[in-house]
Structure formats: C-alpha cells, structure tokens
C-alpha cells in the first residue's frame, strides 16, 4: 500500500514569501524521467534533420505536375517552364505501343513536353506541336506559346522529313486531348481531316485504337499518381486549413467554454441537440450530392467527374456507400442521445463543478491559446516538411530497350542514345523518413496536449486544496506556477506518457495495415483459435489504447500534484480510481460523453465549412484546382478535433482533477475535508440514486 501524499500536498508559498490559509501544492519536488526527456530532445533534433533533408531534396511541384523528356517538372520556374504546366505526349505511336500488353516501351519513356493548354486538331488543316525551341530555331518560349507550339514552317527539309517519321522536332496533332489532372488525355477518335493531310504529306502510319486512351488513363489513375495528387491537394488548400482547421474551431471552442461558464445548465442539452442537428444536416448533404433527393447534379465527394476518366461508376459507388454509412451513424447518434438524455441532469451537475472552477481560476479560459499557438506553428512547419518529403525522390533517367529516337535540335541530327524518359526514384530511406515524420507529428501532438493537461490539473488542484477559497493570486498565479513546475520538473514524465500513447497507437495501426493485407490476400487462420485471435486482436488493441489514454490523463493529474514519475503517478491514479470506482464512476462517464459530443460538434463543423469552401469556383479551376476535397476535409476535421481537445481539456481536466483530489482527500482524512460543497452534493445525489436503484431491484 502506498503512503499518504500529505508530504507533497501542503501549503503554498505566495510571491511575497507568506503562506496563505488553506493547503495547496508545495514546491519540494525534483526532476523525473530525465532519460526520456533526453530522448525527446534527440527526437526533436532528428525531426529537424529529417525535415531539412526534405526541404533540400523535395519539390512539391512533382506531386502535381509531370516530368518532360528532359527530366524537368512542368510549371517549374527554375527550368523556364513557369507558364507551361500540362504534360503532353508528342508521339501518338509511342503512346499506343506503351499500352500494348507485351511492349517494352513504357509511357514514361515516350517523348513528352510541357504545354500551356492541350492541343486539338484543326478543322481544315493539320496542326503541329513542336519541341522546345532551341538550336537554330530562334524563338523565345513566349513566341513558341503564342504560335501554338508550331514552327514547322521554319524547319529544314531534313527536319521535315524527320517529323514525317514521327521523330520530331515537330509532331502532328491527330487526336484531340483534354486536360485531366494536368495531363493531356488523348481521346481515341482521330480527326479525319488531320489524318488525311498527314497521309497526303507522306507521314508514317499512325495507330488508331482505344489503347491510346487507356494507356494515359492507366498512368493517371495509378496508386502513386493518386497519392501524389491527394498530397498536393493539402498544399493547394492551405487557406482552407488555416480557416477551417484553425480559426473556426478556435472560435467555436472559446464560445463553448464561455457558454459552459455562464450557461452551464443548458449546455448539455445544447450540445446534444446541436450534435444531432449537425449529423442530420451532413446526412442530408450527402443525399443531395448523391442525387437521391433534390435536383442537384451529381458531384462525387472523392473528386469531380470527368468524362474522360472511366472511374465514375466506382466513385459514385463510394459516395453511395458513404451516404448509407452516414445514415447509419446518424441513426445510432440519435438513439444514443435519447439513451443519455435521462442522465443529462447528472452531467449538468458535474459540469457545474467545472464551471465554478473556471469562474474562480479565470486564466484557465485563455491558457489553451498558448499550446494552440505552439501547435499552429508546429503544424505549418510539419505540413510543409511533409510535402517536401513526399516529393524528395531523385529524378533519374530510365534504362529502356525500346526505339525512342528523336531529332536533337542542338546536335542537328536524330539521336537514339539516352532518349529514354525520366522518373522519380524513391529509395527505402525516404519511406523510413516519411514514417518517422508521421510518428513525430503524433508524438508532438500528444506531448503538447499532455503539457496543457498537466498545467490545467496543477491549477485546479491548487483551487481544490485551498478549500475552494480564492485569493487574489490564485486566478493567475496558480496557472503560472503550474507552468513553471511543468517546465522545471515534469517535462520528462509528460514526454514518457505521450510516447506511450504514440507507441501503442503506432503498433495498432501497423497491425491494422497487416490485417488488411492479409484480408486482401484471402489469408485467414485455419483453426478456430487462430480465427478468434485474428478477429479479436483489433478490439483488444483499441481497448488497450483507450485504457492507456485514460490512465495517462489521470497520471498527469498526479504528476501535477505530487511531482512523481510517470509510472509511479499512473499507479497512484489507478489505485485511487479503483478504490472509489462506485462513488465516482457514473459521474465521470456522463461528463466525458457530453464533452466528447462537444468535440465532435466542433470537428464536424470544421469539416463542413472546409467542404463548402472547397466547393467554390476558386478550388475548381486554374492553379488552385484540387483533385478531391477528401483529404483536406479530413485534415480540417482532425485539426478541429485537436483544437477542441485543447480547449475542452479545461473542463475535462477540471472535472478529473477535482474528482481525483476528492478521492485522495477522502483516503487521507476519512472524509473529504477540502471538497467544494457543489461536488459533495453531486456525489451524494448519485450515491442516493444508486442505493435507490439497488433497493428497487431487490
């Protein structure tokens, strides 16, 4: 059995050296978990080095635009291509050959250049698209663009003959093309007029087949291309991330805290009703988009439909599945709300306790702005580094064994050496760097949230152990003192707690990824024991993750009060809770449910506003066009939830700290001598109701 904490919980020395009445937290503590703090510092140094590698090697333009035959990224101003962003394949026969099943030629090795817009055949003549002007072609890039990329009239007879062999420098426009994800997608319908002119000039035979269309379509919709476009959407929608992932959740969270402070009796009802209305509104929005109600045109949520991308049926199926799932979630949310309505009165009581604490320690309302600003700066740095890391592969020329001869304007001859295309090669260490970067984001987020929780717990504990009496120093000085204790003594313990959560969540995600791969490969254990373990592993991992988060939260409270190490504080907190589980269990659960619904309200509102912003014309055209609102909306939802966690943590940690301090007070003194009267009234009412239900069942 552990001993009492009276040696730690004693008097509080004010700024002038005097001791005010009431027992508060003493400062006699020492640094804990120093080894983990050293590891955390080394981790931050590694994060900076890892990000520096991304900033040095990466180019976010690669996530959106393709590479031309010189290995330059379309739209790159350093290569003189800032105006030309669309990738176009010059030789239609090479595109056709790359689509054949047993062909050695790959589409990335076909000759490609960057254009301002996708060319279309002429209605009465033959249009040409010529290579970048260089050598004897005395044209600037602007003049080349203004002439629709055509300088065929300036070619020498040798060059014209080479062009008729589809070896450049000029190539005929036989097939129409359209801009699909900054790539000129061929339409496998050759222009009869252009083809007739080409044949009359003595050009080589051009293959006409749907393979031309499918070859580019396969390239555009490869998994790597889709992932790159999704990552590029994050960079393009940065104003949406700032507004909907930062400003809107900040505003909603502060409003919610103020309403808790001044209208606490109505807040549980307001939260439940608003959550249900929000769920119903999002579901109706899904129904409108899928076209099941109203006359809204179908616009799939995972990307705007393009008539030249033959995945529309699959996108619409995904949207319909999402609509059905959203309907089910809405029904479950409404039924759950009805089930907890009967317990809202108890939730109101426990929220009143937190509201009184916030009213007395007023600095708690504004304190979360500090970790909010720190996280905002961190996320801006992290997202920028992530975009560079995802695009940090090395541009190398391919080794191809196919006929890719093309006329070289500088050498003034047809060149068949080193005419292969370029690709971005990703080495294994880049994948490790990306995984490390993702883990670092999660650990840093948990660390800052844990720091915020510990400061709040220390401030609220100061209020509790002062018998609920407030001096002029407590509203501000308790928060400042709690921050000082955290910075001086407890950073190692907080780092260890956040690392524990991050490690468990990472293991769970890795096992989930492995489970999905096994599911795809149709692998499943043969015996019933293996099947049971296979199917229940995720459930147990989720339970372990939830338990660790709950234990961590209470451990931070004990750390703030006692200054003990993380594992020692976890043991103390767990013992206190287990000894008083019947007394405090239901009170704490109801408060947590209401707070969780409040967080969902803030995060879902952020996601809805993000989708509405991305649905405007600004993000459907020109440079800011995004391929899908899916990932930016999810990021805004996650950021909104994190911001809500920071601010709602004031109420959450106030309740938990008061209750945990009450348990310790009861154990040390037999009865809770320091507990606020409102808390005693809430717990007594809950105990009386428990006894009434027990007697009624007998």
UniProtKB/TrEMBL annotation:
Domain of life: Eukaryota
Family to which the UniProt record says this protein belongs: Belongs to the CTL (choline transporter-like) family.
Pfam families per record: Choline_transpo
Role: Choline transporter.
Protein name as catalogued: Choline transporter-like protein
Signal peptide: none
Organism: Stylosanthes scabra
Gene transcribed to yield this protein: CHER1_2
Membrane topology: Multi-pass membrane protein
Cellular compartment(s): Cell membrane; Membrane
Keywords: Glycoprotein, Membrane, Transmembrane, Transmembrane helix
Transmembrane segments: 34-55, 238-259, 266-288, 321-341, 361-382, 443-466, 589-614, 626-651
């Amino acid at each position: 059995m552990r001993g009492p904490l009276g040696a730690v919980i004693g008097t509080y020395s004010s700024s002038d050296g005097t001791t005010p009445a009431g027992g508060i937290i003493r400062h006699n503590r020492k640094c804990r978990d120093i080894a983990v703090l050293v590891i955390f510092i080394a981790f931050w140094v590694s994060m900076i080095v890892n990000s520096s590698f991304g900033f040095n090697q990466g180019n976010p333009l690669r996530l959106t635009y393709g590479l031309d035959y010189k290995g330059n990224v379309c739209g790159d101003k350093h290569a003189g291509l800032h105006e030309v962003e669309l990738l176009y394949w010059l030789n239609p026969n090479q595109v056709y050959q790359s689509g054949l099943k047993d062909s050695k030629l790959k589409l990335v090795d076909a000759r490609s250049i960057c254009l301002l817009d996708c060319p279309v055949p002429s209605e009465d003549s033959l249009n040409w698209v010529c290579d970048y002007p260089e050598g004897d072609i005395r044209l600037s890039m602007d003049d080349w663009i203004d002439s629709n990329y055509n300088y065929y009239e300036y070619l020498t007879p040798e060059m014209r003959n080479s062009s008729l062999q589809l070896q450049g420098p000029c190539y005929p426009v036989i097939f129409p093309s359209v801009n699909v994800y900054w790539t000129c997608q061929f339409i496998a319908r050759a222009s009869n007029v252009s083809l007739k002119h080409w044949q009359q000039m003595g050009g080589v035979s051009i293959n006409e087949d749907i393979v031309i269309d499918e070859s580019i379509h396969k390239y555009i919709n490869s998994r790597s291309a889709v992932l790159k476009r999704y990552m590029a959407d994050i960079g393009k929608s940065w104003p949406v991330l700032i507004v909907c992932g930062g400003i809107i959740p900040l505003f909603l969270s502060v409003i919610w805290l103020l309403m808790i402070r001044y209208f606490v009796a109505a807040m549980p009802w307001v939260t439940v009703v608003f959550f249900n209305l929000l769920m119903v509104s999002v579901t109706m929005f899904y129904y409108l988009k899928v076209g099941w109600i109203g006359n809204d045109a179908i616009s799939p949520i995972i990307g705007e439909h393009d008539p030249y991308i033959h995945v529309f049926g699959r996108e619409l199926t995904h949207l319909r599945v999402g609509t059905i799932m959203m309907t089910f979630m809405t029904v479950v949310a409404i039924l759950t709300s009805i089930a907890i309505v009967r317990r809202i009165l108890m939730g109101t009581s426990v929220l009143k306790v937190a509201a009184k604490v916030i009213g007395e320690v007023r600095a708690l309302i504004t304190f979360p702005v500090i970790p909010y600003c720190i996280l905002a700066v961190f996320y801006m740095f992290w997202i920028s580094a992530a975009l560079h890391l995802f695009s940090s592969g090395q541009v190398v020329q391919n080794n191809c064994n196919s006929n890719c001869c093309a006329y070289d304007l500088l050498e003034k001859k047809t060149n068949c050496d080193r005419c292969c295309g370029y690709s971005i090669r990703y080495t294994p260490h880049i994948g490790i760097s990306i995984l490390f970067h993702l883990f670092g984001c999660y650990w840093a987020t948990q660390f800052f949230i844990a720091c915020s929780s510990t400061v709040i717990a220390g401030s609220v504990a100061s209020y509790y152990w002062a018998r609920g009496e407030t001096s002029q120093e407590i509203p501000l000085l308790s928060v400042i003192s709690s921050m000082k204790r955290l910075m001086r003594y407890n950073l190692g313990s907080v780092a260890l707690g956040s690392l524990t959560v991050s490690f468990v969540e990472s293991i769970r995600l890795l096992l989930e990824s492995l489970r999905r791969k096994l599911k795809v490969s149709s692998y499943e254990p043969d015996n019933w024991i293996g099947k049971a373990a296979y199917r229940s592993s995720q459930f147990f991992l989720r339970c372990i993750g939830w338990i660790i988060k709950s234990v961590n939260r209470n451990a931070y409270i004990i750390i703030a009060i006692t200054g003990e190490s993380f594992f020692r504080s976890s043991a103390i907190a767990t013992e206190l809770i287990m000894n008083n589980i019947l007394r405090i269990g239901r009170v704490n659960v109801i408060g947590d449910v209401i707070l969780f619904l409040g967080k969902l309200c803030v995060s879902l509102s952020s996601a809805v506003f993000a989708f509405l912003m991305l649905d405007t014309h600004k993000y459907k055209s020109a440079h800011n066009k995004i391929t899908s609102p899916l990932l930016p909306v999810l990021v805004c939802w996650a950021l909104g939830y994190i911001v809500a966690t920071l601010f709602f943590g004031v109420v959450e940690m106030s309740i938990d700290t008061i209750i945990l301090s009450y348990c310790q007070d009861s154990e040390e003194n037999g009865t809770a001598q320091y507990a606020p009267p409102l808390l005693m009234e809430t717990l007594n009412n809950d105990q009386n109701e428990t006894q009434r239900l027990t007697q009624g069942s007998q």
